[in-house]
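Follow-up to my earlier ticket, as requested here are the two runs.
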Amino acid sequence: MPELTGRRPPSEGDDGAAVPKTVPKTVPESVPGPAASGPAVSGPAGSGDRAELLLAMHRLAVGPHPTAALLGWLARRGGRWTALLDADGAVLRASAGPAGAAPAAGLPGLAAEGVALLRSQGAGSARIDRAGLTGWFVAAGNGPARAVLAAVGPGAGPAGLPRLLADAARLAELCRQVEAAARDRERSERADAGSREAVLHLLMIGELPAAHRIAAALGPELPDPVRVRVVEGPVGRRAEIAAEWGAATGDRSWIVPCPVNHGHLIAVSPADLSPGGGGEPAGSADCAVGVSGAVPLRETALGYEQAFHALAAARSAPGRHVVFDGQGDLAPLLGPAGAGWARQLLRPLTEYAPPRRADPGAAELLGTLSSWLAFGTAAVRHLKVHRNTLAARLDRIQELLGLDLERLPGQAAASLALRLRSVPVLAAGPAAPVVPAGPAGLELLLSTPATAHWAEALLRPLHVAGPPTAAASVRAWLAQDARVAPAAALLGISAPALRKRLLRIEELLQRSLLESPSAKYDLWLAERAGALTERPGRPAGR
């Protein structure tokens, strides 16, 4: 028959936890158990070593996985199945006793019956004996939704088990609540990080209204204009580095762990937080920082590319901190004619209507193209899609645009068109010349004096400061679609040797070549522009 005790029995523990009134008269003094899973404590639980038992339980409570550790310790000491159950009798966490201590069948059912008994009677503890099993039940809190600590097994168990359960009940529930709070915090942090990453993604594809709406809810507001910083450091320190940057910028920066490069942080900061002007934390020996020029918020993707290129130079620069000082972007130099060419080239994609509602639409395909051009196969991490999904989307984009995206010329044309699409079109001015879409129109754009000047400035470091092999190495690499092994074979050197050359050229150009986003598109455009417009003073053989 069930035996009940009141909410506050005379035998309750010092911490107010109820202790079952009836203690079995004949029990074993201790139950051995594996010492590796918790402190090994022996002797009857109700004897003078109670303080040692309390200390042992509190040590478990502050260790890793405290609820499981505490229940496991109680199960081994009591030689029985021990669990924490909710007010409806559902098992929240359980631990079996020593092997063979009790049959598994019927234990949760008897435990649920004990919980129901406590709830119906409003008691603080109870004991149920049935079919050779004894269940001890102690309320782990107050109120109707309180959890219950249960210990069920053959016989009554060790002499001090009721007192031990009374001492452990509220501690076990507290451990469970702490773990639940930690899980809730982790979920909240993941949700916040996911939302911030979504804002960065929207900025990278030019969807400013949606980015502003999400940012307004999370804070801080998105600045305009901005500087983009890419901070490279140990993966294990990303949270610490992010906190340092947030504090140094007065929480005015939008700081997001890079979804593609796990050792990178991306900070979108107000442009007035100038590099070296008190807007950055003190340099760290294990970090390198690349900083973009000041760009409009709508050109965050361009700022990111600039910062990434600056980072390539920062890795070997004194102070490991470099501000992008390139010759600027080609897209604004092409003017209305370039914007018209880009609109024609991208029209099949921008006006695309998927045949099925579930298929990706124009905006999603544009975002996929932008991500793939920037990150290559790592776009699956940026877009959070499967590689087969990415491949299917790229096949559809190739069909729509008529470009061979497996070759560097097609990739460079698509990259330039996306950048031209974000260039604002002047409301008034002379009519733009009509430039045909496709490769023919691109060659007309690359034949202009402005493009030739841009190309010469971009490639000048190869001829002024580079070794004699620099220009030839770059041309071979570009001719092989920026693949190292085929280019090395063309040059008659090993792939590692060419890779070392390209790393030195990264320092000359202050642009990333081997890692994405790569300057390979701009270099291909510059080489092609140079081939189309022979300028005075141009070195022979280029």
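Run two:
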Amino acid sequence: MKNTPKRKQRNKPGVVLFTAVAVMLMLSILLTATVSFVSVNRTKTNDNYKSKQAYLTASSTLESFINQIQTDTAPTNDPTAKAQQKKAIDNLKKLASANSGKGTTTNVSYNGSNGKSDNIGTTKITVAQEGTSVANIVVTCETTYLGKTEKVAAHISTQSVTKPAEYTNTIELVGNGGAGYDNLNVIGDMAGINNTTGKVYRFTNNTSIYGSYLMYGSLEVSTQPLIMLKPSLVDEKQGSTVTISENLDVSNEFHINSTMARADGYNYVNIGQKLSTSNHMDVGSSGFDVDLFCCEANIGGNDYKQYGNFYVYKGAGAYNGDATFGAAGQTINGSLYVEGDLNVTKSLKVTGSVYVTGTITGKDKIVCTASNIHEGAVLSKAGRDAKPQIPVSADAYVYYPEDFFMSNDTNVTTISDQYQAFYDGSNTKTFNTFASDWTNVDYTLTELIDLTGTGAKTPVTSRYKLRITSSCTWASDLSFNDYGNGSRILVDVSDSSGDIVIRLQNGLNLGAEWSPVIVVRNRSTIIDTTTGDRKYNCYFVSDSGSAITLNGIDSVTGKSQHSGSSACNYSFKGLKVFDYDTYVRMFDSSVLNNTKGNPGLPQSGFVLNPTSVDVAGSYRPKNSSIIFLFGENTTLNATDQSFFQGSFYSPQAIVNIATSGLGGLVVTDSAGGKMTVQCCAVGVVIANSFGNANTAFYVYTKPSTTSVMQNAKGGKDDSAFGYTLDRYDHY
């Protein structure tokens, strides 16, 4: 048997093109466990191409088979589709396990375009076990054409795995307490996902979110915050929304605008209970409608202006769908729908229609065409007028950093061996250990890099005071004279290093005189073919100890339980953490050639692209392979222009990034628009509690799909029944 990674070309004479093969083939195999027929279109074959025709017929049939498996087992959240997904895989396993694992062989007949059988050879499809486990299956197609026989095979692994985690929020709060935000600026989505009633979040001093916002609790707004709805950074085809499960109280200027024309499925504000305004609220703008839904409205104070429809529908409990409009200056450039009673105490301009199920008080104050005012109306609540659903709960986390530290289950973690080695005495290395090896000191790296995105590579040289090549502890044992003053430290991830786990010694406290610059270079060559993410990652982990006990999965919540995690406290001033590929593009040679010092502002012309599409003249980082895992009761305080390019998974920890961050960073959106920001972090921040200060931005980039964070979410109801295509073979 020979493994041929390069397939023979399909664009030469004799290629069998399958158009209707896949659906009929897989319906018969996976749903009835028999093969009926394969319908093909073919070109006339010259006798000189017998062998090639046999190969192409066999390989095309096989690929159609595999493609249909992929279609029938595509990830889904729909319960009915999941059941069909499982049925398809179970039937495939039945075929493979027949005859003591030798499987099932079926002859395939080919029908021409005229419906008659064509003599283009015969093909046998065999579905069999590979080895002793039915989880591993080999599908073989063997075709004989005019005396020439060719055989190809696909080796697949069936699986029933927890749905991979999806990270769509730049900042996500997991705790059950409220929070206040002062000058917080988020490029991407933000959420408070703990569905505990009574929480109150507060926006003050120009807080802005350029994306979607989802929160469980109430929001109090003062001092001119802004939510600018933008296309999703996860999928540019999707729009954005604001969802607040309880009340929205606006006491001083609140603006919710959009960069998108309204379409079904986005551009809306959905308030689960009451909207109250007392001073100036704008929703939408001309040409960019934003609809608003609530269960009770009290519009007062000064100025309410909206472009879009205003809906007040009945809700749970005492929320009867009533609305009062008494602001000094109030305009709805759209239609008003009220399921309860409408009370208008000051002039209300409505450019569309007014529909009220109950009674209208102050009808004379409504500035609207009289024939467009409908009292006692029946509301359809369909299409655009349907109230969006507030999810009962967000996608819950099942596993915590403690599971990644201590679990022996390789389906949960890949780093527990490295973590536990710090506590069983088998890894005593610290940063200072590498400083004692001259090959890692004053390290110079030159690499060919495509800086322009054109494919042309140029040599780029960067220098570092210290190089780290394996897991170790970052302790307080480095010499300040050698490693203070902004020393550049390279963490070099490779196939030989595997995952590099860096334990932060509890109590690590580095003042502004240290201001270390950490650059993580990832050159592991094993790459996920779907996402392009490298297999190995760099983890900065809390010093949570080895006394952690994993107490199993709670039968009610479906979440992992643990105890014994040690509390940790960290304080950094001026700490900067960069991904190498971003670092060498962000700064010019005058910065890259220094081994110490504050790198300063990014070079002119560097534009960071956090969107899901390429934008000319910008750099779009890959999913981040830098992961911060902080256990329960850990507190991180980062101040004085600290900057993090990486993802924080700290659902039971406190993350305070109270810093003005990195100045002068130019960020683009998918349309090529640019703005220059002070940036604190590029990644995602997931924390029990989050604190910020100063006018600084947080920019979305999701974590590597090969990191342990992919296992954090999911549960018994989120199983994905599918397969992995391991390889093709040509015999």
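The only thing I checked on run two: The radius of gyration is 30 Å. Let me know what else you need.
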